């Protein structure tokens, strides 16, 4: 989430084992129930850096990144 937000970085699709690991992680109730929203992750990092979120970011509907590339087979 942070790599995409701050550096436009995405995990390369060639790292198939990492994507499979993430797929299985996303299936776990323990992960989905404890994972903060993307906006909360970004807000926490910004607070650590001494910056603040913009008002429109605070009012956004929470999103949760839990997808993998379509061509990766679990």
From TrEMBL:
Gene3D superfamilies: 1.20.1050.10
Any one Gene Ontology molecular-function term assigned to this protein's record: chloride channel activity
InterPro entries reported in the protein's UniProt record: Glutathione-S-Trfase_C_sf
Biased composition (Polar residues): 62-74
One cellular-component annotation, GO: apical plasma membrane
Chain spans, region Disordered: 47-74
Protein name: Chloride intracellular channel exc-4-like
PANTHER family the record matches: CHLORIDE INTRACELLULAR CHANNEL CLIC, CHLORIDE INTRACELLULAR CHANNEL, ISOFORM A
């Amino acid at each position: 989430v942070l790599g995409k937000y701050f550096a436009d970085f995405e995990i390369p699709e060639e790292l198939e084992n990492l994507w499979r690991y993430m797929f299985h992680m996303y299936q776990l109730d323990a992960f989905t129930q404890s994972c903060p929203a993307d906006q909360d992750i970004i807000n926490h990092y910004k607070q650590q850096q001494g910056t603040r979120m913009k008002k429109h970011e605070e009012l956004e509907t929470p999103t949760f990144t839990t997808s993998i590339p379509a061509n990766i087979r679990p």
